[in-house]
Amino acid sequence: MEVPILKQGHYLIASIQSALSDADLSQLREKLIERVGKFRARGVIVDVTALDVMDSFAVRTLRDIAHMARLRGSETVIVGIQPEVAFAMVQLGLTLKGVATALDLEEGLAFLDLQAKGRSDRG
Amino acid sequence: MGDDLHCPIAADVDIVQARQMGRELAAQLGFSAGDQTVIAAAISEIARNILMYAKRGELLLRTVNDGARHGLIVVAQDEGPGIRDVQRALQDGYSTSGGLGLGLPGARRLMDDFEVVSEVGHGTRVTMKKWTRTHG
Fold first, then answer.
1. Looking at the domain assignment, is residue B80 inside a domain?
2. How many residue contacts between A and B have a Cβ separation below 8 Å?
3. In the beta sheet, which residues pair with residue A47?
4. Which residues of chain B make contact with A84, given a CB cutoff of 8 A?
5. Which among A64, A81, A40, A63 is positioned nearest to B41, based on CA atoms?
6. CA of A92: which chain B residue's CA is closest?
């Protein structure tokens, strides 16, 4: 199941549509990191609203995406973690430490805009 | 007790299949949406353990009723290398896979009952249960 990646302004938006296998998740990671360079993206949003479970592999892959994108000069926000999914993640001991999250796509875009503004204000 | 649902685990797509089957069965038994997710997450971890350590194995899903509550039982079995020190494998932060899965301790926290039987060189069987919550 391929995850569509849309380009909107300086941002890339990966919108997960259905359950993903480990291979699908790894492919998403590779594609996103490649496209950050190709489109000179400043920010990446991964929308996980449709994910009904996040296990250790999914969380690890999202963390990897965020860290790799940052190394390429791009901020990542994970949006749309459902309440039950958050509950199970905490029970499992899974964290997204060091990775920005936002409630939904709208909040995610607002976060990236704020980050971009902070960057341009600094100089 | 009905027939077991059988789910072979030999590739990453089987993990997705297994947790979807678990979620559906949990929904049929009347588990809350939160508990359905918890069960699906536990199945995901335990199925991944099979893939990582034994390469292949199977999951059996089964329902029980103790008179007051419904229960969902997940049995994960493989004929892999087995676990040398089960007590240690159940401790947080212990993993021989380079920290990829949270494996057993994570799944144990999600479920109500959790049992591991393992024999080195012969395989591992994990049996975990979740009960519907009684109301009132």
1. yes
2. 74
3. A15, A79
4. 33-34, 36-38
5. A81
6. B106
What CATH number has the domain bearing residue A62? 3.30.750.24
Q: How many domains, in total, are found in chain A?
A: 1
Across the interface, whether the CB atoms of A57 and B109 are under 8 A apart is answered no
Residue B136 lies in a domain: no
Q: How many independent structural domains does chain B possess?
A: 1
Residue B20, chain A, CB below 8 Å: the answer is yes
Report the predicted TM-score, pTM, of the whole model to 2 decimal places.
Answer: 0.90
Scan for tokens 């302004």, then name that residue.
A9
ipTM: 0.89
Helix (H) or strand (E) holding B88: helix B86-89
For each of chain A's 123 residues, which pLDDT tens digit applies? 789 999 999 999 999 999 999 999 999 999 999 999 999 999 999 999 999 999 989 999 999 999 999 999 999 999 999 999 999 999 888 899 999 999 999 999 999 999 988 888 876
CA distance A12 to A4: 10
